[in-house]
Amino acid sequence: xxxxxxxxxxxxxxxxxxxxxxxxxxxxxxxxxxxxxxxxxxxxxxxxxxxxxxxxxxxxxxxxxxxxxxxxxxxxxxxxxxxxxxxxxxxxxxx
Length: 95
What we know:
The chain is an alpha+beta fold.
């Protein structure tokens, strides 16, 4: 599902203008981005947890040339679904 489809479906379900839904989605994404950039975990009840994870620097070896490269530390965002949400997804995929 792409952003436009999400906005259209939510607007239809809630019977509100697409512009309002688009604004809400943009605000939600902006909020998540800001909090994760601050290294803050974001918990959305009955949905899941977005958690920044800092990876240490490491050495990467090129298999063809054998050259070694130092890869800098970086942050990845992990997502852990809420148990009841994950269970619903599994049940739906088995239908």
